[in-house]
Design brief:
The chain is mainly β. The protein has a domain of 83 residues: predicted glycosyltransferase like domains (Thrombin, subunit H, Beta Barrel). The protein is built from no helices and eight strands. It has a six-stranded antiparallel β-barrel with strand order 3-4-5-8-7-6. The chain is globular, with a radius of gyration of 16 Å.
């Protein structure tokens, strides 16, 4: 009997896949903000590109600093009891940062209910 916890890598699309979890191509609005002290106040809006239990890849307005703690709020596509909109709120560390996207390794998450009222327009 093999009780090894070894993680196997696979070649996907010609590149070595090192993730331990599967990612799903979820496209939803995301709000993000760097919450670590001493970091410049960075926040913005983007779109998730893929999500899994281990992390989230999303578009950004500016590059995010590697290793910093970030809070993400994602409008969840499913509804509680089919009627109440949900929001996925996660915190984690930036493990990849490019000019227009970032990857965060999820450390903690929860689902919250969100208002059914449309957001107020800003001028």
């Amino acid at each position: 009997m093999n009780t090894s916890t070894e993680v196997h890598s696979a070649h996907i699309g010609g590149t070595l896949e090192r993730r331990e979890t599967v990612r799903f191509p979820v496209r939803e609005d995301v709000r993000y903000r760097v919450i670590q002290a001493k970091a410049p106040k960075l926040s913005g809006l983007g779109t998730t590109l893929n999500m899994g239990s281990g992390g989230i890849l999303f578009t950004t307005e500016d590059p995010l600093p590697l290793g910093r703690l970030v809070e993400l709020s994602v409008n969840w596509p499913a509804r509680l009891d089919g009627t109440c909109p949900l929001q996925f709120v996660a915190t984690g560390r930036v493990v990849r940062s490019e000019p227009t996207c970032a990857a965060v390794r999820t450390e903690r998450y929860e689902f919250k209910t969100r208002s059914m009222k449309p957001a107020a327009a800003t001028v």
